[in-house]
From TrEMBL:
Keywords: Membrane, Transmembrane, Transmembrane helix
Highest taxon above the source species: Bacteria
Lineage per the UniProt record: Bacteria, Bacillati, Actinomycetota, Actinomycetes, Micromonosporales
Regions crossing the membrane: 71-91, 126-144, 156-183, 263-282, 294-315, 335-357, 369-392, 534-553
Name by which UniProt lists this protein: Membrane protein YfhO
Entry keyword annotation includes Methyltransferase: no
Amino acid sequence: MPRRLVPHVVPHAVAAAITAVVLAPLARPGYVLRYDMVFVPRQPLSWEMVAPADALPRAVPLDALVSVANLVAPGWLVQRIALVAVVYLAALGMARLVPTGRTLTRVAGAFAYAWTPYLAERLLLGQWGLLLAYAALPWLVAAVRDVRTGRSGGLARLVLAAAPAAVTPTGGVIAFGTVAVLLPGGFAGWRRVTVAALGAVAALNAPWLVAATTSAAGGRSDPDGIAAFAARAENWGGVWTALAGTGGIWNAQTVPVSRASPLVPVATLVLLAVAVVGVRELRRRWPGDTGRLGLLAVGAFLLAGAGTPGGAPVLRWLVGAVPGAGLLRDGQKFLIPYAVLLALGVALGAEVLAGRLAGRLDAGTGRVVLVAAALLPVAILPDLAFGAAGALRPVRYPADWNAVAAQVAAAPGEVLSLPFEGYQRYPWTGGTVVRDPTPRYLDSPVLMNDALRVGDVTVDGENPRAARARAVLDSGGPVAELGVRWVLIRREPDVAPPAPVLAGLRPVFAGPHLELWENPAAGPPPQAGRRWPAASAHLVAAGIVIFVLAALLRSRRRSWYGPRTHQPEEGSHG
């Protein structure tokens, strides 16, 4: 390979290698179903995907985008494209962002960002939409710097980088906060540009914001969720050490086994020490931007630990009193800006240390240091490899699901999914917990439980109709009085509902895994109310993305490809 191509090709090759190793099980056919990660063969596009009538828009506009993608590609392919994009773009984006002329430093940055507890734990929790924000943030930081330095097309790249982050509410908030902190001041016309950038990113967030205002769900959340979703310790190092290593997720079932090792806190301290050296170097190379990024990272880190005893009282008040504040309950998910700064610091810190050793010993020793820095994240978290040690294994939907979907499609109406739990353990998934696929598989509104069990705690949901259904089921009353057209039941001996619950219904399908009952006395489905405002917000957001993409294509610039060019830096050893 010509030497001049090495800096361009190596980051892509490393990103591809990391992606292949992490997602290796996806070479098998089927669907990876874990917690919130639910893909189906063909997800119908419905009003519930655009503006949920009775639920908070936690998956807006993500579900609608998946449904649109399913118009041209099957669900198994959409899932693989999405997961590959997460890992590949995270690694490549960080490799491009590191301000260096040294290829091995970029490689270290790619591993430091794409091989992290945060990515592993959120992947095991199935939150691939949030991970799109994780993958997008290095690109967004780079685009903000382009705008501040006057690079052509920077504003369009900023909006385009923010778009994948805004497919979930949390990612959209992170993208907006990143632009609000990093962009203002320091260049000619910054007020006008900042207003335009923030306005565009706000418009990308409009789909879920407008859907939240038109939903019948209450905007306030259960304060009991604070303790349930608080960051947790993963070993003897405690909560704050876990967060410092980008771990600490609330769900113990999604934590890789290696995080319990007593050596993990020690390795985390090593990474932090290297990162401190690197951040000092970053301040020299980005004199005006490092402080802003540091402020953003510190804020993200403190928010991640807000559910701990010190901040829990304030957070409980916010969640119970302020509409929409429930978004802050799972604070650990806001660690993304901190992870960006940590990866930059580790990469540059390793380069500085390598340069010092190369000066005292030889260049080969310096290269060994950089290779060791690149492989350290893998040594700390070896079980991210091969689909988190096989946890991300594809499965197939039983034929019952297609049979039920055909029955419901022939006579559309609202569906009640039983057992009335939002998350289920199906035998055909190997007992893996998964969000009930019914709303995505069937082309009809689905009434399901939005309360969440976390250990012995039940965190109440916000859907008023779900609350009424829970009351009917708890009393043993017939579900026919809810007015639903269909009742779908997971067919297992230990979860069968009592006979009085099914009074007034008639069975229409019974397979090995599912039963479908019809309510002959069902009335018309409930009216959804105001949904066109949310649909309009979706169209505006889509129009903005199409416009900036067309603008970039017209410019015929290849600034998204290959490493970013940098002037030789003092202390940089190429």
